[in-house]
Write a structure and sequence with these properties.
With 503 residues, this protein is an alpha+beta fold. Helix content is 19%, strand content 37%. The protein contains 6 helices and 26 strands. A 5-stranded mixed beta sheet has the order 2-8-7-4-5.
């Protein structure tokens, strides 16, 4: 009965586990050059103090397998891939998460992660200027640019343990510049609005240093063990024995070339570039470092003696924004428009914006534009209206590909008292007085004439001739007089009237 009971519990635990599995993630720090180490990290985010087990495997040949049984939510597994055993290519690592139920281990979840082994060193070519890492390929003119190669930590550790010396050859526009031992080169570009092609060829010599003689001493140490939530284990493939002391990267044996040697090297590059243009197949069979530069990334030199790393970057030289001049009136009467002219120097195109602050404002240099306008000119105008009578600050932000500049101007708005001009008062008063004088003199003159005017009446009725006319005759004469018709020179008294002339 006990046996059947355990089987039932196992089945129930398996079913419950299938419904609610723990989350499992697997990551790695690849890609990595052959011979270096890769670290795989398994993480269980919702871990709850359970007894779990991690089983790591990869599909490389020979295969690596490692099991971790503990109660932590994160496990690191580090594996070394010697150059003599593994080829370059893409591989897959897998981790199985096991959970214990009543003494039985049941697979809860599975995660996998792909990684690459490469023949060449990995990393990036970084540009630094003004103590700041550039996020783009634009650099400022007449300012020192630090070029440096950044290698992954695992590959840098691999070089420290295996390489006797590491040299970085630097080229600009396919011309040899210099060689360094610290992965860095400082250059200054004086030609604005130009582009340059920069290459760095890292060559690591795999020949080990001579054994270092050491004196062995016996010491007694006490070890204190502490518990952490992260476990790191390194799985190493057996390799031929070598010196117990890890060789260090030596720089004392590197001789810097003279100017004559630089010219010979550049001439050799020119010859090899012409050969590559004729036959690329022949160039692929060469392992000389010079075949690996000048836009040629079609092959990687493979050598058990040396490890190479090729890095390239095309950068553009630009003049930074500088000398911002703001001209215009900064004292304005209320109601007047602000009119400022902004002039500056630098390489176009330019992105700019204007911000208006109330009162006095001190710029910090961290101001940014929410809405930008773009121009290729080295000047623009500002026209703005301030509604209140107060102090304002105009902040101008101008930037191009390499830098940003911020400048300000303080604007004072004042309200002036309006005084009426003399002509506005004098002219209306004068004309009003003249009008009054004319009216008064007119009335006096009219009264004076009406007082001394004599009317004369003519009472000579004897000379009047009264003609009797009928209504029709009077109506006819009225029409004639109205129409200015000329009448006949006849005697107004005609013969058909009732009165006869006196004899």
């Amino acid at each position: 009965m006990a046996h059947y009971f355990r089987i039932v519990l196992f089945v129930l635990a398996f079913l419950a586990n299938g419904v609610y599995p723990l989350q499992l993630f697997l990551t790695n720090n690849g890609p990595a050059v052959r011979g270096s180490k890769i670290t795989f990290t398994a993480t269980v985010p919702d871990f709850t103090d359970e007894n779990i087990k991690f089983v790591f495997t990869d599909n490389a040949q020979p295969q690596h397998i490692k099991t971790f049984e503990n109660s932590t939510d994160k496990i690191n597994w580090t594996v070394e891939y010697p150059r003599s055993l593994y080829e370059a290519g893409e591989y897959t690592a897998t981790v199985e998460l096991m959970r214990s139920y009543f003494g039985f281990w049941i697979r809860d979840n599975v995660a996998s992660s792909t990684f690459k082994l490469t023949d060449a060193l990995n990393g990036n070519l970084i540009l630094n200027q003004n103590n700041s890492t550039l996020q783009s390929h634009f650099v400022s003119v007449n300012q020192t640019v630090t070029h440096y190669v950044v290698l992954p930590d695992n590959e840098l550790e691999f070089l420290k343990e295996n390489a006797s010396r590491v040299v970085t050859y630097w080229f600009k526009d396919c011309m040899y510049v210099d060689q360094t031992t610290d992965f860095k080169l400082n250059l200054t570009y004086n030609d604005a609005m130009s582009d340059h092609y920069i290459e760095a060829l890292v060559v690591a010599d795999n020949e080990p240093l001579p054994p270092i003689t050491t004196t062995t001493t016996t010491t007694t140490t006490t070890t204190t063990t502490t518990t952490t939530t992260t476990t790191t284990t390194t799985t190493t493939t057996p390799k031929p024995p070598k010196s117990t002391e890890a060789p260090k990267i030596s720089t004392s044996t590197i001789q810097l070339p003279t100017s004559t040697e630089k010219q010979i090297l550049n001439d050799t590059l020119a010859v090899q570039r012409s050969k590559r243009s004729v036959s690329n197949h022949t160039a692929k069979q060469k392992s000389a470092p010079l075949d690996f530069i000048c836009y040629n990334t079609s092959f990687v030199p493979i050598s058990e003696k040396n490890v190479y790393g090729h890095y390239q970057e095309t950068l553009s030289v630009r003049a930074p924004v500088s000398t911002i001049n703001i001209t215009g009136l900064n004292w304005l009467q209320r109601g007047e428009l602000l009119h400022l002219q902004i002039k500056y120097t630098g390489s176009p195109p330019f992105d700019y914006c204007v911000q208006y602050k109330q009162g006095q404002y001190n710029i910090t240099g961290n101001e940014t534009c929410t809405a930008k306008a773009r121009t290729i000119a080295n000047n623009f105008s500002i026209i703005h209206y301030f509604s209140g009578s107060d102090q304002h600050t105009v902040v101008v932000i101008i930037e191009n590909e390499v830098t940003k500049a911020v400048q300000r101007a303080t604007i004072n708005i004042y309200k002036a008292k309006v005084h009426a001009q003399l002509s506005v008062i004098v002219v209306p008063v004068v004309f009003c007085l003249l009008a009054v004088i004319l009216v008064v003199f007119g009335m006096a003159y009219y009264q004076h004439r009406s007082r001394y005017t004599i009317e004369v009446a003519d009472f000579d009725f004897g000379q009047a001739h009264l003609d009797y006319k009928t209504f029709s005759e009077r109506l006819r004469d009225s029409f004639r007089n109205a129409l200015n018709f000329r009448q006949d020179d006849t005697d107004p008294i005609v013969t058909n009237t009732r009165y006869d002339s006196m004899t």
